[in-house]
Design a protein that fits this description.
It is built from 10 helices and no strands. Helix 9 runs antiparallel to helix 10. The C terminus is likely disordered. Helices cover 66% and strands 0% of the residues. It is mainly alpha-helical. It has 2 domains: 51 residues, Arc Repressor Mutant, subunit A (Orthogonal Bundle), CATH 1.10.10; 111 residues, no CATH class. Pfam families: TetR_C_16, TetR_N. InterPro entries: Homeodomain-like_sf, HTH-type_TetR-like_transc_reg, HTH_TetR, Tet_transcr_reg_TetR-rel_C_sf, TetR_C_16. GO terms for molecular function: DNA-binding transcription factor activity; transcription cis-regulatory region binding. This is DNA-binding transcriptional regulator, AcrR family. It comes from Raineyella antarctica.
């Protein structure tokens, strides 16, 4: 499917908002990144806030529903580190960058809940799902924004083993006995 000019503008805005935050991005910045005029950005999207809303989407993480609970902690941590190594966007770190300067911070919170907490809460309980996402957000911020825990400090495999075990312990404590994760009492 061919990419439209509007799609290009929204993609450019999403990247800039994720990199710099809402307040540090102008319509001119978005136009330059999308290689269009600022007036075309305004015509197609309407306003900076409209551009922010259109570009701020959080796709559900397939691992939250596809991986058996017994290995989910390690899989989620490994995915964060894989994304870092591949220089792919990290949605949880992006959510932190977007939240504080957002025109509507509650909208970002809602999007994160819908894309991450709710799918996991359908498999566990609400408190456990929120705790797991909080642990993952902390790791995401540490490795992406603070640039901590790089390969020079700790090998990815070792970090997956250590941090994955922490996340898995929370998952196991929130998994009812006899369910797919096996849980512990």
């Amino acid at each position: 499917m061919p990419e439209t000019t509007r799609d290009r503008i929204i993609e450019a805005a999403g990247r800039l908002f994720a990199e710099r935050g809402y307040s540090a991005v102008s319509i001119r910045d978005v136009a330059a990144k999308a290689e269009v005029s600022p007036s075309l950005v305004m015509k197609l999207v309407g306003s900076k806030e409209g551009l922010f809303r259109a570009s701020t989407r959080f796709e559900p993480q397939p691992l939250l529903v596809d991986v058996p609970l017994a290995g989910l902690g390690r899989a989620l941590v490994a995915d964060i580190l894989r994304r870092r190594a591949a220089a792919e966007p990290d949605v949880l770190a992006r959510a932190v960058v977007l939240l504080l300067p957002a025109p509507d911070p509650e909208e970002i919170r809602r999007l994160v809940r819908e894309a991450y907490v709710e799918p996991l809460a359908r498999r566990l309980d609400q408190a456990t799902a929120e705790t797991v996402i909080a642990l993952l957000a902390g790791l995401s911020v540490s490795v992406r924004l603070y640039r901590q825990l790089d390969e020079a400090t700790i090998a990815s495999e070792q970090l997956v083993a250590r941090y994955g075990a922490l996340v898995q312990a929370v998952i196991d404590q929130g998994t009812p006995q006899g369910s797919e994760g096996g849980g512990s009492a």
